[in-house]
Design a protein that fits this description.
By secondary structure, this protein is α+β, with helices and mostly antiparallel strands. It contains six helices and eight strands. A four-stranded antiparallel beta sheet has the order 2-1-7-8, with no helix packed on it. Strands 5-4-3-6 form a four-stranded antiparallel beta sheet. β7 and β8 form a beta hairpin. α3 runs antiparallel to α6. The mean pLDDT is 96.
């Protein structure tokens, strides 16, 4: 079973090709407007900035908040700390997930709990500005239960602006340092998630 980071290697942000991390257009349109503390209403046909209607449904793997403290502490102590939307950790504490099947409202049951491993921070070539945590099956049982042929990613942190200068260098070093983290988690069920935004801030679980 290949290591998830080796599978994702070709999709990672090309650090050597840039001297800054610029938020791409999709991120600016669908993520930045969500990075506020405003109250979130129940789902309804009145989308706000960065939201959409009708809501999207997906089959997802709900994950316990991994709280990778060494990584978070290093980020908080760095010069790019003010560019991180820290409030998101609280608002999304029960919404961390990896999407299995986009656009699906078909539930799927697990015969038994499965073991997964959450890896350290990863930034891709798309949705730049979002810090993901890759997710991999811990064993063959988990791989067969998920039946997915692509790497799984859990969106974890959001950046509020472009990262330049010393902050860019620090971000690159922090990602490289903490990417090998391995956080074991056990998942007992899958969810069908209905959401009006890419961060699942305005969402609900349809099936458990």
């Amino acid at each position: 079973m290949p290591d998830v980071l080796s599978v994702l290697a070709g999709q990672q942000y090309e650090w050597d090709e840039h001297d800054s991390l610029r938020l791409d257009e999709r991120y600016r349109t669908r993520h930045l407007p969500l990075l506020t503390d405003r109250p979130r209403d129940l789902l309804g046909p009145d989308p706000g900035p960065g939201e959409f209607w009708p809501p999207a449904r997906s089959l997802v793997v709900p994950l316990p908040d991994p709280r990778p403290e060494p990584f978070l502490s290093a980020l908080a102590a760095s010069s790019l700390a003010e560019l991180v939307w820290w409030r998101g950790l609280e608002l999304r504490v029960d919404r961390v997930h990896a999407t299995l099947v986009h656009g699906s409202d078909e539930p799927r049951n697990l015969d038994a709990p499965i073991d997964l491993v959450i890896r350290g921070p990863w930034i891709g070539q798309f949705n730049t500005g979002r810090i993901y945590l890759p997710v991999e099956p811990a064993d063959e049982q988990a791989a067969l239960a998920l039946a997915v042929d692509r790497p799984l990613l859990a969106g974890y942190l959001q950046l509020t602006a472009d990262v330049t200068g010393n902050a860019y260098t620090e971000l690159r070093q922090i990602v490289a340092t903490f990417q090998p983290l391995r956080i074991p988690v056990r998942v007992a069920r899958l969810h069908v998630l209905e959401t009006m935004d890419d961060l699942a801030l305005r969402s609900r679980i349809l099936t458990r």
